[in-house]
Amino acid sequence: MNILILGAAGMIGRKLVRALLQAGNVAGRPIRRLTLADIAAPEKPDFDGEVETIATDLSREDAAAALIASRPDIIFHLAAIVSGEAEADFEKGYSVNLGGTYSLFEAIRRAGLERPYTPRVVFTSSIVVFGEPLPPVISDTHCLTPLTSYGTQKAIGELLLADYSRKGFFDGIGIRLPTISIRPGKPNKAASGFFSSILREPLIGQEAILPVSETVRHWFASPRAATGFLLHAAELDTGSLGQLRTITMPGLCATVGDQIEALRRVAGDAATKLIHREPDETIAGIIAGWPQGFDAKRAEALGFRGETSFEEIIRVHIEDELENQVREHA
Questions:
Q1: Which of these, 50, 239, 300, 322, has the minimum number of CB atoms within 10 Å of its CB?
Q2: Using CA atoms, how far apart are residues 90 and 80, in angstroms rounded to an integer?
Q3: How many CB atoms lie within 10 A of CB 283?
Q4: Are 33 and 48 in contact (CB under 8 A)?
Q5: What is the pLDDT of residues 262-318, one digit of tens each?
Q6: Among 175, 183, 179, 181, which residue's Cα sits nearest to residue 234?
Q7: Which residues lie closer than 8 Å to 2 by C-beta, 6 or more apart?
Q8: Backbone phi and psi for residue 229, each to the nearest 5 degrees, phi listed first
Q9: Is 150 one of the catalytic residues?
C-alpha cells in the first residue's frame, strides 16, 4: 500500500500518520510507502518502509503531478487554508482550497490517461458547506448554501469529487468533519478556534477568551474521532455511496454553555473561572451562519463513530494529549 497525505504536518495529519503506522495496513494491505506533504516539510516518522517528506505548495501548477508520481493507492487530501484565514485572505483561500484541489484531481486524471490509475481519494470537507436556510437538524441531502468563502471552496471541492468519481478518474469519498475540539497545541486562524481554547487553556491553568454567547450551538468531534473517520473512509466500500460521495460525519450537538459545564464537571470551578467573555462581532458573525445540528444516520449506518458527550471529548483530550505529555517527559 502506497499512501500520500496532503496536509501531513497539520494536527489531524500528524495523528493520521501515527494511526496508520500503528495499524500497519489499510484494508488488510500492508503499508510499504508513505509520502507526507505540506507547505512545510512534515516530521519524518519512524517507519520500516519508504518515507518521503515534501515541502510544497499544492496551489503551484506543477506540484500535484510531482506528488502523485509514485501513483499512491490512497490519497488523503487534508490540506487547506482554515476558515478565518480563507475569509480574511480571499485570493489565498481560493488559490489553495479550490485551486490546489482542482490541480490534484486533474493530475490524477491525466496520470490515468497514460496508463490506468484510479486511487482512493479521501477528501476532508466541512459542515460549513451548509448555510441558510438552516433547519435545526440537517441531512446529507440538504442544499449546499455556504455563507463563507471557506464553505464555498469546500462545497465546490465536493462537487468536483463527485464528478471526477462519476467519470471513473478516481474513487473518491468526502467526509464533512464537525468542528474539531479539543485541538491540541497553539491556536490557529480558524474562526472556530475558541471552541477548543476555552477548554484547552483552562485545563492547563491558562486563561482563555470566549468571543461569542454561551447559547451558541454547534456540531463537534474530537481529533481521535476525526482520525477514525479518515481511516474508515479509506477502507469503506464506496459502492454503497452512489452519487452522494460526501457524507456528514457523526458528531455531538452542544452549546458553548454545555462545553463549559462539561469542563466544570471534569476540572472544577477553578478551570471555568479562567474563561473571560470578550465579544467579537466578526467571529460571532461568521459563526452565526454555521449549522448547529445534523442527522448523521447515513454515516453511522456505514460504520462511522463519534463521541456522545462533551465530557467524553474532554477526557479524550486529557488522555491523548496531557497524559501523553507527562509520560513523554517522565
A1: 239
A2: 13
A3: 17
A4: no
A5: 999 999 999 999 999 999 999 999 888 888 899 999 999 999 999 999 999 999 999
A6: 175
A7: 32, 33, 35, 70, 71, 72, 73, 74
A8: -60, -45
A9: yes
